[in-house]
Each structure stands twice: as structure tokens, then as C-alpha cells.
Specification:
It contains 12 helices and 13 strands. By secondary structure, the chain is an alpha/beta fold. The strands form 2 sheets. Strands 7-6-8-9-10-12-13 form a 7-stranded mixed β-sheet, sandwiched between helices. A 6-stranded parallel β-sheet has the order 2-1-3-4-5-11, with helices on both faces. α2 packs across α10. The longest helix is centred in the N-terminal third of the chain and has 26 residues.
């Protein structure tokens, strides 16, 4: 009887130690966050990441802000290598470029990098969330306001957004949409591009292309499209606030949550791994009602949807 009791006690103690060890290994997972600068969008990502990390028992030990300075990034990278967290979240192109170059043995999840293809953000330890919403989701959102679209115009610099255009063209064909393209290499060509496109298109699609979108050129694009009753469709609600008709864009808080979910999946893998680059799981639709009125669009029914952001 005594022997059986001792055996049971040993089994209970052993099981307890195993469970304790498993819990400690699970609960002891750590993450650090490095953001390129102090922007409200980046801060929303951090909030979402923090909240979801709690749900996944991941502790955030440090949040670094580079303030847009590469030298600070190099110092932070040294600190991260010394701390050896289980995973790193990088927010923005500067932070992501720094960790990609300096950190090779810790898994990285990046987000908020516009046109990420340009920066060759791939590697055995790199996972990312694209800033671009899937083409199908974008145009499903736009068409919920405008109905079926047949001809979409786009002005772009091939060196900046050429890859996006190439991928979009293939997917738009499946949606029954024709893409009218106009290439530019300088913002001085925007007026010429508008003259060639307007009259041939149902709407103009504005990409996050730094050649095309400047403060001066956006004002020209906005005024020309409104004057000619052409809806201006964007990938950021910043432009909707400034007068574009609509945008399908990321929900920054949810991007943070999605990043934490990816981090949890990566930390469950047996070796250093990448999950590739994925599109945002969730998007928001924004509409400028003043612009809709100027275009003569009836959007009353759409506005009853509580998920749509209304400006102004």
C-alpha cells in the first residue's frame, strides 16, 4: 500500500513539474516592438498588438521609437540582440529595414511598409502583413457604393508601384474590370495623364505612389475628378478626409492584432520559420459624403451600414 502511495505521489509530482515547465516555457515568451516613428497609425498597431499578445501569453518587454533616425535604429538593434526576445514586431519601413539587416536569428513580423515588394523583405525569419488590401476586397468595397465598375484608370510610376499594377491587372480581369494605365516618372506629368484618362474611365484608382501623390498633385487630381464627375478611389482614409470619394484601407488596430496572431503561430513552430507575407484580414470602407454629393451620387443606403466610416 505504501509503495502504491509513493508511486502515485511521484507520478503527481512529475506531472506537476512537466506542466509547470510547459506553462513557464509558454508564458515566458517575449516580444519587443520597434516602430519607425511616433505616428498615430503606428500607435494603433501597437495597441492592437499589446491586447492580442496578452491573449496569447506573450510579454512585450520593450517598445522602441526610432524617431525616423537610422543611427538610433542601429543602437536599438544591438539592444534587441542582447535581450534576445522570442520575436520582434517592426512597424514602418525604417524599423523593418533595420531589423532585416541586423537580426537574423530571431523571428520578425513586420507591418505598415508601403509597397513592401520594393524592399525585398523576405528571409527565413521574416513574416509580414502587406499594407495593401486584396484587390478583390478593395473593388468589392468600391462597388458597394458605385455599382459595377467596368473601366478603372490608374496613374503610376513603374519603378514605385509597377509590381502592384502587374498583380492588380490579372485579378481585375477575373472581376470583369479593365485597367486603363498611364505611366509617369514625374509628378509634372499628372495633368497630361488626367487629360488622357478622364472620359474613358468609370473611376480613378489612386495608389500610394510617391511620384504620383504629392500635396500639389493631389489637389489637381481631386479637383479634376470632381469637376468631371469621376469618383476618386484610394487606399487610405487620409485622402478621403482630404476630399477623395472613398477608400478601402487597413484597420490599424486590427493589423496589430493580426501581427500578434502571426507571432503566436510562429512561436509554436519547432524552428526559426517564416509564414510569408499576407494581406490584412480586415479592412474598413470610408466615404466622403460632401464629395459624393458633388459627384451626384446617392449613398444613403450605404451610409446606414455601421461599419462604414463617414467623412467629413
Amino acid at each position: 500500500m505504501i509503495n502504491k502511495t509513493r508511486i502515485y505521489l511521484l507520478l503527481i509530482i512529475t506531472l506537476g513539474l512537466l506542466l509547470h515547465g510547459t506553462y513557464c516555457a509558454y508564458a515566458g515568451r517575449t516580444a519587443v516592438v520597434i516602430k519607425s516613428q511616433n505616428l498615430s497609425a503606428y500607435n494603433e498597431v501597437v495597441k492592437g498588438f499589446q491586447k492580442e499578445c496578452i491573449q496569447n501569453n506573450i510579454s512585450i518587454t520593450s517598445i522602441y521609437d526610432l524617431n525616423g533616425k537610422m543611427k538610433m535604429g542601429q543602437k536599438v538593434a544591438r539592444k534587441i540582440r542582447k535581450k534576445k526576445p522570442d520575436i520582434v514586431l517592426s512597424i514602418g519601413v525604417l524599423a523593418t529595414t533595420v531589423v532585416k539587416e541586423k537580426i537574423k536569428d530571431i523571428p520578425i513580423v513586420f507591418c505598415m511598409v508601403i509597397n513592401h515588394e520594393r524592399f525585398k523583405l523576405s528571409g527565413p525569419n521574416i513574416t509580414g502583413i502587406s499594407t495593401e488590401i486584396a484587390i478583390e476586397d478593395q473593388f468589392n468595397g468600391y462597388q458597394s457604393i458605385l455599382g459595377q465598375l467596368k473601366n478603372i484608370g490608374v496613374i503610376y510610376d513603374p519603378s514605385k508601384t509597377g509590381i502592384i499594377i502587374k498583380n492588380a491587372e490579372i485579378k481585375m480581369k477575373h472581376l470583369g474590370i479593365s485597367l486603363a494605365k498611364y505611366e509617369v516618372t514625374s509628378s509634372r506629368k499628372i495633368s497630361e495623364a488626367l487629360e488622357n484618362l478622364i472620359g474613358k474611365i468609370d473611376a480613378l484608382w489612386l495608389l500610394p505612389d510617391s511620384t504620383v501623390v504629392t500635396r500639389k498633385s493631389f489637389d489637381l487630381i481631386k479637383s479634376s475628378t470632381i469637376e468631371n464627375k469621376v469618383p476618386l478611389l484610394c487606399t487610405s482614409d487620409v485622402f478621403v478626409k482630404a476630399g477623395a470619394l472613398a477608400a478601402v484601407s487597413s484597420d490599424y488596430n486590427y493589423v496589430g492584432s493580426q501581427a500578434a496572431g502571426l507571432a503566436a503561430k510562429i512561436l509554436e513552430l519547432p524552428a526559426l520559420s517564416s509564414l510569408g507575407i499576407v494581406n490584412p484580414d480586415y479592412f474598413k470602407l470610408s466615404i466622403n459624403t460632401d464629395t459624393a454629393e458633388e459627384l451626384g451620387l446617392e449613398v444613403k443606403l450605404v451610409l446606414e451600414d455601421p461599419k462604414i466610416n463617414i467623412y467629413p
